[in-house]
Amino acid sequence: MPGKLKAKIVAGRHLPVMDRASDLTDAFVEVKFGNTTFKTDVCPKSLNPQWNSEWFKFEVDDEDLQDEPLQITVLDHDTYSANDAIGKVYIDIDPLLYSEAASVISGWFPIYDTIHGIRGEINVIVKVELFNDLNRFRQSSCGVKFFCTTCIPQCYRATLVHGFVEELVVNEDPEYQWIDRIRTPRASNEARQRLISLMSGELQRKIGLKVLEMGGNAVVGYLQCFDLEGESGLVVRAIGTACTLDKLSSGSAPNTNTHMHPNTAPASNACNSPSKDGKESPLAHGCRSTHNSPVHSVCSSQRLSQNFSVSVPTLIFTGMGSGGSAGKEAGPLRTLLRQQTQTALEQREFPFFTLTSFPPGFLLHVGGVVSARSVKLLDRIHNPDEPETRDAWWEEIRQEIKSHARALGCHAVVGYSESTSICEEVCILSASGTAAILNPRYMREGCLDIGCTDHRFEDPSPPSCGFCHIPYDELNMPFPAQLTYCYHCRRQKVPDVLFTTIDLPSEAAVAGKGCLIQARLCRLKKKAQGETNATAISNLLPFMEYELHTQLMNKLKLRSMNALFGLHIQISVGENMLLGLASATGVYLTALPAPGGIQIAGKTPGDLSNEHISSIQKRINDTIAVNKELYQINPPELAEEGVGSPIPEPRHRSRLFRSHSESSDELSELDLSHGKKDAFVLEIDDTDAVEDIHSLLIDAPPPTGFYSCNTENMPGISNWTSGVQMFTSVRVLRLSNANLTNQGLNKIFTDLCENLLKSFYFKLRSMIPCCLCHLNFTVAVPEEELIQVTVTAVAMTYDKEQTQEKTAEKPVNKGSLEAEEQLQFPLELCADSSSSNIQTASKISGVAESTNISPRAASVDYGSFADRCSTWLELLRLKAHTIRRGSVKTSRRTQSLAHSVSSLERCSPLQEGRSRSLRSSRSFGGSSVTVVKMTPLSFLPGIRIIKYLGIINMFFIRETTSLREEGGVSGFLHSFIAEVFAMVRAHVAALGGNAVVSYSMKECVFMENPNKNQAQCLINVSGDAVICISETDQESSASTANTGQTGGGGTDGAT
Amino acid sequence: MSVELDVFVGNTTIMDEEVYQLWLDGYTVNDAVKVRMEGGVMDECEASKDVLLSDTMDQYRTFQMCERLLHSPAKLANQLLFQIPPHRQIMLIERYYAFDDTFVREVLGKKLSKGTKKDLDDISAKTGVTLKSCRRQFDNFKRVFKVVEELKGPLVENIRQHFLLSDKLARDYAAIVFFANNRFETGKRKLQYLSFQDFAFCAGQLISNWTVGAVGESSIDPSYNMVEDMDVDLDKEFLQELKELKILITDKDLLDQHKSLVCTALRGKTKVFPEMETSFKNLSRGLINIAAKLTNTKDVRDFFIDLVEKFIEPCRSDRWTAADMKLYLTHYTNSAHILDTFKHQVVWDRYMGVVKSCIFKMYHD
Q1: B129 and B183 fall within a common domain
Q2: Cα gap A515→A496, rounded to integer Å
Q3: pLDDT by residue (tens digit) across B176-201?
Q4: Burial letters for A561-586: b for 16+ Cβ neighbours within 10 Å, e otherwise?
Q5: Is the ipTM of this complex over 0.90?
Q6: What does the pLDDT look like over A512-543, one tens digit per residue?
Q7: Do B276 and B323 belong together in one domain?
Q8: Residues of A in contact with B81 (CB under 8 A)
Q9: Residue B25 belongs to some domain of the structure
Q10: Is B80 in Cβ contact with A118 (below 8 Å)?
Q11: Number of structural domains in chain B
Q12: Is A727–B81 a contact, with Cβ atoms under 8 angstroms apart?
């Protein structure tokens, strides 16, 4: 019995009237944990009952503590008939299970009913007493911290980044069980809510175990998703990045990310190979041979497995793609899976990171976006305890990602995420990330043996441009790309355009401001069943991806930008169509060449529509000019060059820097494949193309005073003021049946997204000047003729006056600051190492260059449309190939994997010293409500996070049988979303917090049946509950920030 | 192609004051959109009509969801569903409970019953206030009435605390409750010239001087302060005592003495002195008779009409100015103190104090 859970029911308020005769309620409460239930006394005839119950005590395993929620049910006592349920509260007690977080949960919780919504509130106190766990073979993982935040959380520093952790659990969906036919909707919804709560608890525990096994103490970038597979079951899966985090003392600077001292790693690292790290870290910088030393078992196995895994995907694909009956597949698949398991054990995990922003110096080079999709046919999950089919699917995708990354010369994938789209029995699995080379000092087992990148470590690049430098070999480029020397340091090659899924590194040098760029696409598809359907979908996918990329590229050029960050491509499947939505934040990186213009060309030179073409050309040129103005893109070297006029790249310029490059051969090869084309050419050969161009120009720029992005940081804006408004918006469009064409659909879909943005701008106009950050669009096709778009974002105000100054000064400030910080640690690390001196020296020189950009760089390199095309085509062809081969599969159960992980020998170092102190003063009287701020970002402007209280991960179902009475579908969903917000805020407040960061709405599944006057909606939200305080030295935020901590005196609602 | 569902929910509830007012005024969504378009809000953010429609619908929904909470404003402060900054909460409440003077003028003194509610469409047609707005205002009156009916303690304070209203608005509601409770007649043609604010002022005077609570303020016993309905019902004892004032008109000597004292004081000070002199007895009889009859509920209801008929109209026909009126009433009240045989000074002051200030307020065109 390693834990004792205690709960006390204090009072209720605003209860609904349950007895029409007396207009009152006789309420009592059932408190349930696991199989134990306690009841309070009935508080007769009151809508504001005071129970003041005793402490209900549950003695439970800590495993259960992690899995189970505390269930509180409020009921109306009825002497003659069954007691009526008023509603429930589920309390996730996980935040109480690790020492640094909350010590007590106490506060007013909305009483929630799946049919009626929120019905009053209940005041509850919950505590946990944990005994030291002596069982080394335990199944619990108490003490592992979880963060949704995709960067190293404020007030922590990462001493070690262990890598990728993933897990999934499956179960049958209660709603699809036979019993559901005789259950009430309420019972069915509650069964589902409870099951998902249990499953996510279990999932988190299992991930925690993996983290402990790796020697970590936290999961950052924790991303949990549900797949509602309908009849085939319910999958809850999660990925994250295991880390060892150290809490910083509260006195230290808020900007903790820079405090990553790699040399502290061995000290705090209570894991498998402590001694090796000690040796390795200081040397890693200059001398790579250590990693190949045979004593370093982890590393060598990693190397081995890497070599091995190259061939694995091929194996898998041939094995699985052979078609025919699934029974036959089982054989080879089985052995294969076994092999994979072995390798998985050897190599531990994929070199994937769910983080999107990193401490300076962590990210060395970025290769580009890697993504993989696969279409699967769902089949019933026969045995929930062995979810290996789904595991294998993801394994396969991850392998593919990994091989793509390797093709880009990268050993790691950052900004990694996974998603699914399900329609009936077809499921599209997607994974994407950014191939990258990381600084191995931060990883115990970073893949350190990629020969081709050797020189990069020896010749470190300045932080403001280093990540742009190509990681792949110029001789064996994975795809044709146009390379030039970095416009910053002139030493390394950079591509003409860079796409990534991560956030803009804080040290990156940019010109002007960023902006949200979206590509939207609809593709009609015939209705079909089973394999035919899956084949049709997988045939469409590559074309969709290609078009999305083309759109993105065009729009990027149109804005005169050259890089995309936070790229997220979602492909959603419906019965008769596929929707594709790509969102990213465009930015002008000064290290990359300036983008060329867009040139319109008719099919034949002497076309009749020549005038038409020239008018379009003019419009495009005008738009580019306007956009440059709008986003303040004035890189110094571009000053006197017209964008529309393509200037061929002077070839001699690149030779100027030849001394830096390896060989002249490769230069000539480079010249052969590129350099002859000028601007981006759009050919108008049919009406489609005209439409495309029109749609290109349709995107309205945000109104004056607004900017938008989908990343954590808005490029070019950093002087935030205190105004923060998080919002969720849902719009569902019903298509009329008549004459739907791809073009028409595209237009409709584009308008839908554009109108949503326009609505946001209008609604938030009082916040001008303001930026919409982290705009996260999710599309779905809930029914045949419906398109649903869900958006969550945050609007933040900024100081317009300061912006101007700052952008001007920015490169200088940033650079020098960076240099200082960088100076600190390498010197500290290995003061006698000459390489570090070189590094710092080069950094300083890099800074000098960035601030004072030399006129040599004046020539511009223009991308060529044709080349671009072939680039993507090439990649897509590759992708399509694998997709097609791996596409249609009827999943069957295969032999069980040796899935369980070897039991842990070590307890978490955090087990001891669990001290709990009751928070001093929290009023239960509840006169005023704590203000809880919410944001999808990892930070709040002007506010410092002093404590992370644990993750919030909540799942709700709401159903109605009186849709019209609740204000129709909009009224129903509006109140449900408001209720979800309220419940999140209440839980955070009860934990003692005053804000939620990294908030996201993972799922918003809406179903309606207006004829029956019914609707149902499922929402899953998550985020990190935090305590934050205003940075007192920042005058702007002082007024609004500290509201949460003091439960100031308001008036009590005496009735 | 049609928008099936469209919602926008902010963590901090977004409310546009202009739209709130349109909602309160009972505009339909489409009418509200028209008004907003005419107001030029579209130019602000390059918005289109669709954007405006979507925004208006969202806001209307939000207000509808909030309405339940606004019915007991104290709940708004500690509900969890909407995160609304305190100053916004105050705005929401204050505006929700605000009313049109033209509307309230129509129902002032009427019983707040279902019957009256049925007549609201007539009132709506007459006043130009939309029926929806009329209903809200009427329901507000009724709600406040119902709540304070059961509460002990000072009326204005109760309203202010219970409905979190500003002092001004709480006083207006106190007047409405007071009028509804005593069913003062305000609808007669002769009273039409009086505004709600005139009546509200008079109600304030009556509440603070003629009710049980008014005595309580000066009372030593604090428990006396908490009598039920203390501010809503007139002090019965006082009304009885008012009968004693009759001596001023029944006793011939006293009447003459009073008249001569007043006339002496007024002589030469006003142009309308002759008229004052001739009508003194009539006016005095009028005022004292009103006082003497107040024990009758029916006559209480006619208090204002009586004041107008018996005093204000005669004076007006004699073309008294407001200053004349003030002068006359001041001397009329003060002279009674000098009368040796008149023993009811306290009651006299309590009566005349209110009557004086009511007449001052009501004496206009």
Answers
A1: yes
A2: 19
A3: 999 998 889 888 888 889 999 999 99
A4: bbbbbbbbbbbbbbbebbbbbbbbbb
A5: no
A6: 888 999 999 998 888 888 888 888 898 889 88
A7: yes
A8: 110, 118, 978-979, 982
A9: yes
A10: yes
A11: 3
A12: no
